[in-house]
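Checklist before submission:
- one chain only
- standard amino acids only
- sequence pasted in full

Submission:
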Amino acid sequence: VKLVESGGGLVQPGGSLKLSCAASGFTFSMYTMAWVRQPPGKGLEWVSDINPIGDITSYADSVKGRFTISRDNVKNTLYLQMNRLKPEDTALYYCMKGAQRGQGTQVTVSS
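Returned file contents:
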């Protein structure tokens, strides 16, 4: 299993970013996938997940209405569109398959 996140960066409050996670080494279309994050000095926090065919999604209350998870089962890629970002969204973001995760991509929201 290989999960490679990208798309993080520094953005001002109210801005947007789109994260991607390129998956390989398994049949991507058969698995629920998730995004989790780790704020500085804190533990992992579940953000969102999506079922294998992409028609059922769930979100943490802290991101509901601002973030959108999606997937492309042809490209074996998971996405997280993040809008109206807040400083408290600052974290290292990981995509996850079960208990497996990539190296993460850093999102920093600051003016």
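Reviewer check: The chain has a mean pLDDT of 97.
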